[in-house]
Amino acid sequence: MASSHSNYINSPCAACKFLRRRCTSGCVFAPYFPPDEPTKFANVHRIFGASNVSKILHEVAPHQREDTVNSLAYEAEARLNDPVYGCVGAISVLQRQVLKLQRELEETNADLRRYARALGGETTSNYGGQRG
Amino acid sequence: MASSHSNYINSPCAACKFLRRRCTSGCVFAPYFPPDEPTKFANVHRIFGASNVSKILHEVAPHQREDTVNSLAYEAEARLNDPVYGCVGAISVLQRQVLKLQRELEETNADLRRYARALGGETTSNYGGQRG
């Protein structure tokens, strides 16, 4: 993604286009907001604001900026889709899924221990323990 | 939380105090940013900006505003703790945990099926199937 700026060296990046300003060679947005992805910047601008995004990008190391922009874009899209919970909604769903799977695994392990007892002691060293 | 404004009716809310403005009775922030929780507003202001938070609050129904503020506060705190991934980091961790648990459950169910076969056909109707 960081190399995509060179593909559009004559076009302003999506951020500068959106903000109607000149895109200079040192533009902090340009490597991560190519002009062919206008929605990506529009979304992060709408949720975080351009100056907050710029501030965050200047706070992180250059090699971490692509991941930073992608996680901000993910958060912004989630908030636009769900203004109440944003991506915290996905965290709740995943937390419930983890709890459900943990319960299921415990029950299955309990079944396994019952089977191990039914089959006799010689196999219990292979089966019936909680998986690590 | 929504009732806490009445406890501090003579103090400006944390948002108005932070923004150094008069807190009026119709303040959209006041019910969700009581003056005794100054960090909550400072965090969402730093990540989203006060005007974006106000815009989001006006977009959602009044009964959803408390959840909205709490999810914004959670996201803002996560971003301040981890400027690169924010709460998307938690989503990645949870997604990996779900995949690990699903694999573990599949393996345990496969063990269970082996046990059921070893114990003979009459018990396979009770054990050895994937849990629903």
TrEMBL record, chains A, B:
Residues 91-118 form a coiled coil. Pfam families: LOB (PF03195). The keyword Coiled coil applies. Keywords: Coiled coil. The keyword Ribonucleoprotein does not apply. Residues 11-112 form the LOB domain. PROSITE patterns: LOB (PS50891). Belongs to the LOB domain-containing protein family. This is LOB domain-containing protein 25. It comes from Raphanus sativus.
